[in-house]
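Curious: explain these tokens?
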Amino acid sequence: MTTTRPKIQMVDLIGQYQKIEEEIQAGWAEVLKTGAFINGPAVKAFMAHLETYLGVAHALPCGNGTDALQIAMMALDLQPGDEVITVPFTFVATAEIVALLGLKPVFVDVDPQTFNMNVCQIEEAITEKTKCILPVHLYGQSSNMESIMALANKYDLKVVEDNAQAIGADYYFQDKQSKKAGGIGHIGCTSFYPSKNLGAYGDAGALFTNDDELADRIHWIANHGQRYKYQSDYIGVNSRLDSLQAVVLHAKLKRLDDYIAARNKAADFYDNAFKNHPSLTLPYRAPYSNHVFHQYTLKMKGNRDGLKEKLWELGIPSMIYYPIPMHLQPAYAEQFGYQKGDFSVSEQLAEEVISLPMHTELTEEQLSYVVEHFLQVCG
């Protein structure tokens, strides 16, 4: 029986920093000496390592994950009125960028096990206006990319992967080959928001592609569309990665596989504790993807919100990712004509999911405390 109350956080960035402090401080000192604060040598070194790690031809930096999605859509030269197929069970940025550019988000529901795009619904959503499929690799597990790419090839569509939550995840093809999530579609996008598995100490993001022409467009679009200084060949944006953040990200990239192993160890601890509980459904691990557990998310029957409040009183943080599906958000329901009942799986998940503390610094004492008291209040 656990008698003390350990300090528990959803994400422990301070504890993680303490283990890499010396390397980060040395890297920052070098940046400060050189004065190369934007897209300097530290950025180039990090992106080169990231290309190797992900097995992609091009990794291109930008200011944040939302910018990455916008730049990807701009690089594909999508036009107002073009349709982009995506999912309603996601963070707002996914659909936000589609709508912001005058494109139309066309939602398909998610799979009830993986919570990722239900590939069985994609084909019926394709119209003559469809130009892109935008799957979200939710919670740390890749979508069924082999099926998605097959449909994209059949209908001559582009695929942009929202890989903000699954960097480092491996996708396994039927022929036994594997690729990293984010490096399978025409463009992959990620966020380096501090709480991500590979997180900066501020905003940062990146795009990935194996297409040289797309890489060229992405590079210039992210830099005001300027192929040459003061000559804008594209309509662009200002979205760049600063060198101080690249130092942090490079230090963490060297340890990313260890971080993933630590998250899986914590997930296994949770799984063993909850596996026989009749009101809980454990995270599903698809045969075609490993899981990097950006979040450890359960489905639960009963008073989920009441349980969340009781956990908070016990010093156990938890989160609901996400309480309102995109198609029921006022901005999207009103503009695009969606209503309650359109995507039943997403709506049910919004009422049932709960995410428990998940990060690289979780100790057995902390995990035991979470499990013990979660089971007590869950009943």
